[in-house]
Amino acid sequence: MLRDPDQKENAFRHLMDASQERLYRLVHRMTGNHEDTDDLLQEIFLKAWLHVDRFAGNSTLFTWLYRIAVNETLHFLERRSRKRIVDLDLGAVPDRTQSETEFPAWREKTWQDALSALPPRQRLVFGLRYYEEMDYRQMAGLLQLSEGALKASFHHAVKKIRHYLERHPD
Amino acid sequence: MNPQEHQSIRDEIERIAPGLSSRLPREEPIPPVDYFAGMQNRVLAKVRERSLGGARPVRIGTPFLRAAAAITLLAVVLGGWWTYRSASGEKLAALPTESMAAWLEDALCEADEDLLLEYVLDEHYELPLLDGADAFPLGDDFPDLLEEDLF
Asked: ipTM of this predicted complex?
């Protein structure tokens, strides 16, 4: 249906319906705010629309979509990190809590900061394991990394979170 | 959520960092009401905009700009090299004449006949200067030629 021009839009709406919440959580966990998540989510779906003809069917459609989301988000974080360095050099204050008012109760600030302090790949692996309960084999297929590397990332992430929470008690 | 899987993850966390798992929240963000409907419409509007707009405009920011920058850089490097080469060539070409003139001037000032003779022989007759007065093998007409060249 996605390859049929007459049905593509309807089929694509179904695909968005089925995946949007999970992708939203994945991206929000990485960016920490709604505005960036919204921009990225639109970009991810737009890319999916443009390239769905090239989807080879080697994985599930959702896994393919998830890969686009992971790549887009990691690239975005890389760009944002470079921009923050420039902003800090220029004396600007990074606007990292701009949308917290929209989610007043979802997570304590300390916890958000602990997650944000992780390097993007460790944040991603921690989120997939802890929130999405993905096992390492699934993760390895999704991220094209070895299970050993993923276990090490999760291990480091947990250690760093504990260290952060010890230094910043509630 | 799979309770067994969830428990095994908590156990894994406990093994790495004892006491931490009880402090980890499970809540995840929930977007504003009707957010997804609006987001889908925005995505499809962008899709339609692209289909109606035909070919995408040239994106100056990425491959086009990079190619232009690479060509400009190459042109600058080649131009610089060419200018340097031309200048060096002229300089090299000019060097023997200038140095020769300076050498000749020095020689004249010092009235060093041997040097003058060497220059005239080398430059005009392409003959080597041989040691000693008896080394001139040119016969009787040679002093006249030499005198004419020098004065």
From this structure: 0.75
